[in-house]
Amino acid sequence: MAAIVERDETVDVLITGFEPFGTHAINPSWEVMRLLDQTQIKGWNVRAHRLPVEYEPVQAKIPQLWEQYPSVKLVIHCGVGREGGIELEQRARNGPYVRLDNQKTFPETKCSHVDDGDCERHTTLSLPAVIARVRDAYDGNINIKHSFDAGLYLCEFSLYQSLRIGKAPAVFVHVPPFDKPYSQEDLTQRAHIVVQELVAQAQLNHAQAQPAKPKQPLPKVGLAVFVSSDAHPGCVLLGKRLTKGYGCHSYATPGGHLEMFESFEDCARRETQEECGIALSDLKYAMTLNLVQQEAQYHYLDVIMVAKTTEEPKNMEPDKCEGWGWYKWTELPQPLFASFQELFKHNFDPFAKL
Fold it and tell me: According to the model, what pLDDT value does residue 1 have?
C-alpha cells in the first residue's frame, strides 16, 4: 500500500543533499544545505531533505517529494563532487548507472527508466547567467563552473528523476569536499549565494512563463468647456453629438480628451477651435467630475472649464456634430449629455466664474 503523502502547498523551493558515503564520513552537500530548511530566499519558502545514497529509495523518494510539495517552483539537488570548486550541472543521462550505492547495488537495468532509452534531459535554467552573477558577487574570487557531466552516480540519477517529472525547473549543484579548497564556513557561504542566484533565475523564468494579465481599463480624462457670450446673455454654447457610442444624439459643450502633457487651458482652446472655430477669453477652471456609468463601461474624469467668446461658432466637424447653438441656461435642450446631471447636483453655474 502506497504511503500517504501530506501535501504542503506553501513550499516554493525544494533542496536535497545526500547522506554520508564512501570516504565522505561527513557529506558537505547535506551539511551545507540543511541550514536552509524552513527559511525564505527572495520571498520563496524553502524545505530541505536528505536523500540516501541508494538508487531504489531515491527513485521512490523524489516523486514523493514532488507530490508532497505540489506548488514547488524550483528543485535544487546537491551532492559532493570534485575538489577545487562548485559545479552546476546542465544535464542528466538515463544511464548507464553501474557504480555501487551504499547497499552495494545498482539498477538491474543500469538506467533510471528503461522506457526512456538513450535519453538525456537538461535543466531549463540559464546556468551561465547564474554563474556570472555568482562571480560578480565575489568579484571573481570563487571557483564555479558549468558542467555537462554529473558523474553517472546518485547525483545524476536524482537529477534525472526531477528533470523527468518536469513540473518546475530542476538543477544539480556539486560542492567540493570541505577544506578542498573552502572551509566549511566559506563553502556554506558560497553555496548559499549559488542557491540565492538559482532562485533569482527561477523567479525570472517563472515570471516570464506567467500569462500576461489582461489589462484593466483605466478611467479616461475628458474636458468640457462652457462657453458664454455677451451677445447671447444667459446662454451657453451647445452642440448635438453625432459620434456613435456613449452620448450620441445628446447635447454637449465643446470638449474632448486631454492629450499627454497638455494643460487644461491648452486643451480647452484646442478643442473649441477644432470643433467650433472660435477663440476664447476669460478661460478658467471650474471643477472636476468623476463620471461613472458601469453598465455602459463608461468612466471619465471630466474637467469643467468656463470661458467667454466674442465670435460665432461654425460647425467644423459636421460628421461629429449636428450644429452649434446658443441655449438659455434655464431652458436647456434635451437630451443632455450625462455630465449635466452631475453638474446640477453640484449647483453648477457656468457664469459664476466669469
Answer: 43
